[in-house]
C-alpha cells in the first residue's frame, strides 16, 4: 500500500501510471489540479477496448473508491481492494 500511495502522491498534473487489478490493466491519472476542497482529482481508466473510466472518490489503506455518473445522472461506485493492485513498472508509465 505504501508503494501505491507514494506513486499516487508523486503524480503531477496529466501524469499517469499503469497497474493491474484482478488480471485487467488500468491507468491512474492526475487529471485536474484541485477540487473545491483543495484535493487533487484522479481518474482510473480501463485499458480494454472500451477504455471506460471512473473518478477516484477517496483512497484508504484498504480500498480505492471509484465513482461515475451515467447519462441519467445515477451514481455508480466501486471499491478496488488495494491488496489486489500491482503497479506495472515501465519507462512509458509517466
Describe the structure.
This protein is mainly beta. The chain has one domain (2-88). The protein is built from one helix and seven strands. A seven-stranded antiparallel sheet has the order 6-5-4-3-2-1-7, covered by helices on one side. The longest helix has 9 residues, at 2-10. It is globular, with a radius of gyration of 13 Å. The two termini are 20 Å apart. The model has no long low-confidence stretch (mean pLDDT 89).
Topology, number of strands: 7
Put simply, the count of helices is 1
Secondary-structure content class: mainly beta
Low-confidence stretches: none
Percent strand equals over 45%
Mean pLDDT: 89
Order of helices and strands: HEEEEEEE
Strand order across the biggest sheet?
6-5-4-3-2-1-7
Portion of residues within helices = under 10%
C-alpha termini separation: 20 Å
Q: Report Rg.
A: 13 Å
Amino acid at each position: 500500500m505504501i508503494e501505491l500511495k507514494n506513486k499516487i502522491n508523486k503524480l503531477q498534473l496529466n501524469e499517469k501510471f499503469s497497474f493491474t487489478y484482478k488480471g485487467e490493466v488500468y491507468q491512474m491519472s492526475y487529471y485536474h489540479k484541485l477540487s473545491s476542497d483543495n484535493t487533487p482529482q484522479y481518474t482510473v481508466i480501463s485499458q480494454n477496448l472500451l477504455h471506460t473510466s471512473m473518478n477516484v472518490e477517496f483512497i484508504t489503506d484498504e480500498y480505492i473508491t471509484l465513482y461515475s455518473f451515467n447519462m441519467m445522472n445515477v451514481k455508480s461506485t466501486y471499491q478496488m481492494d488495494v491488496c489486489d493492485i500491482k503497479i506495472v513498472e515501465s519507462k512509458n508509465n509517466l
